Amino acid sequence: MKKKFTIAASIVLVFVIVFATYAYVDAKEYKEAVLFLNEIGIQEGMLSRSETKKVYKDIKSGNFDEPVTNAVLTKVAENYGLNIENQKAEEIYASIRTYNMLTYTKKILSEDVLNIEKGMTYKEIIDLLGETKDIGTVDEHTLMYVVDGTKLLYLKFSDEDDVCELSGKELLDTLVNAVQDQKDKNTFKATVISKGKNHVFLSCPTYELFDSIYLMIDDKTEIVFEDGTKATVDDIEGEVIATFTGGIRESYPPQSNAKKIVIIR
Length: 265
What we know:
Blueprint: H1 2-38, H2 49-61, H3 67-80, H4 89-103, E1 107-108, H5 110-114, H6 122-129, E2 141-147, E3 151-157, H7 168-172, E4 176-177, E5 187-195, E6 199-203, E7 212-216, E8 222-225, E9 239-244, E10 255-263
């Protein structure tokens, strides 16, 4: 009797080990799939768990023969405002990757910033945090990172070999709040990078459709201060809440027409 019990217990133990191993592998595969798909705009929740793994394997294998793959890629491309008429799933994926390479801002955590030591070169910092979009000029680089999903870190330097005089802890004090809480999908909070007589270049890396954009300003554009007082293009600076007309022209950075710009500060 004791021998039978021992055998039964051993069988149960084997099943437990097999199940635990399967659960671990499944969780690992799902996490890899989520991280990969997030990078091309397929957010967690857009697909079921099984669909997430199916789409991930379909794209990684290069097959692109799952209907759900074509459907979700089409949805992401349309959200970005990309023209994908008559394109196959593989071509849509390539268009999305190209768009993201031009507009992607690296997302990091506060803990990553804390790993920066005072005196590190900007090249060393880039190696630590990862490549991200540069919104600077020919003479001065301005690297932009999204920290904890709601704040922005800007690193400005002329040469990658320049030394950063701030520690990671000190850099955290320079973070800019960039929470997007607008209900209108065409309205977003942004920081003014530059402006001209008939356009403004905005940085908005926590916005879901793009993280920077040129908004064209014309006679129909409403420009006001936060209290509703009328303003002009010359007043546009700092932080703003912008609304665009809806159509996004394919370019880098993307372009659209400004419907309303509210100057926060």
